[in-house]
Design a protein that fits this description.
The protein is elongated. It is α+β, with helices and mostly antiparallel strands and 189 residues long. The protein has helices at 9-59, 106-120, 124-131, and strands spanning 65-67, 76-78, 133-137, 156-164, 180-188. The protein has 3 helices and 5 strands; from the N terminus they run αββααβββ.
């Protein structure tokens, strides 16, 4: 009869290898989880900022609609040009001024919105001209299309916000490059 007096050295080594592989897998999963959480936080911030902009536009219908109450009985057609519009790869019509503590005019509200975008999304200030747009759009862009459909027709507004990320960290295939993430939405006012 043989007596087992303990594990052999080979069994201990196999156990250590399997445990190490498991721990390394958990560490990799944790790193990816942090990356996805950060993307989710930034994407939720972009959603909130786009929603804020839509509410600012709705609060200033004279800047968006050709006819708006009380001058007209109902809202009618989007204006061809507005201080809220920003074509792709261009700047806003007027340079944003410092945000007033109590904005009263549409320009002041827009400027405060731009300031909150710059403060909330990483690298947004550098991307304002190249990756942001707010434009009229008659049809949605294809889901994999990088270029927006800003044809200045129709009753929909397309809003795109952007922020910087680590190289290759953005899961969006429409992003302009490997270090930029975008959020694009279409809304009817």
């Amino acid at each position: 009869m043989t007596k087992n007096k303990g594990f052999s050295l080979i069994e201990v080594m196999v156990t250590l290898v399997l445990t190490t592989i498991g721990i390394l897998g958990m560490v990799a999963m944790q790193g990816r989880s942090i990356q996805y959480t950060q993307d989710s936080v930034q994407r939720n911030t972009a959603i909130m900022l786009a929603s804020d902009l839509v509410e600012i536009m709705r609060a200033n219908p004279g800047e968006i609609f050709t006819k708006a109450p009380p001058a007209a009985p109902v809202y009618s057609g989007l204006k061809e040009d507005s201080l809220f519009y920003k074509k792709p790869k261009s700047s806003f019509d007027s340079a944003p001024a410092a945000c007033d503590a109590n904005p009263n005019t549409a320009v002041e509200m827009r400027d405060c919105w731009i300031e909150s975008v710059v403060a909330s999304l990483p690298g947004a200030e550098a991307l304002l001209e190249s990756a942001f747009h707010i434009c009229r759009s008659s049809a949605p862009s294809d889901k994999d299309e990088k270029e927006p459909n800003c044809d200045d027709k129709g009753s929909m507004l397309e809003i795109q916000l952007a922020w910087t990320v680590k190289d290759g960290a953005c899961p969006d295939t429409r992003a302009p490059n490997a270090t930029t993430c975008i959020y694009r939405t279409r809304v009817e006012l």
